[in-house]
Hints:
By secondary structure, the chain is of the alpha/beta class. It contains 6 helices and 12 strands.
Amino acid sequence: MNPVAAFAAAALMVGSPDPAARFTARPVQAGETAVLVFTRTTGFRHDSIPDAIAAVRRIASENGLAVDATEDPSAFTDSNLAPYRAVLFLLTTGDVLGDEEQAAFERWIRAGGGWVGVHSASDTEYDWPFYGELAGAYFAGHPEIQPATVHVEDRAHPSTSVLPEAWPRTDEWYDFRANPRRSVHVLATVDEGTYSGGSMGPDHPIAWCQEFAGGRAFYTAGGHTRESYVEPLFLAHLAGAIRWAAGLAPGYCGNVGRETPRRSLPRRPPPRVMTPRN
């Protein structure tokens, strides 16, 4: 059995959250570091979600973390979020939280929580200004899945410290509505000269982090494919991000001290310029 098939079988055994299942609150336990994985989708749904959850569970086990996975937005209350040091928006899409849940999440971030966004976390909550600034940039489109070379700019951050300076890998390479470099600490860029269909030019950030509104935020555009979640370097990238967001590993991400708006902007459909896959 090839590695992807074997891991897929394990992922199915672990299971992804039942979208209809209600969230069960975790009690606060002294000395425990817990991570919440949120995978709700109201737009495109990635078939790699079970693989991604299983990978995060394995990362958590190897790092002594407790982990819960849910698609229930009722997890986002002050009391429910209190036990968690980090929350992952793992392959989320669309509008996933209501107004009350958004307000609770904002309070949690402002109290020092850490957020990790993976891939389509940037294709999420286009009408929530706080989230847009937390994520750093919104998705605009992508070409077909293909190999490319990632250039690591910061090899000291725990999410990139084990990566080679030039990191060749295959994924779905996101373009963004705007370049986030002015407001985040860029960790890595993708070289548009090594693949076709990119539209951001020579400076194309693909992973970044920031200290934001009292908390921490990390985003990586990688992770579309199921193969990503058995790829040792991508898993190391994700593990370092989780440890940093949870406050378990130091890493410089700047200090962006800006006020973020709380009121929603007028709704507009996000652009999705994509090349159909065969």
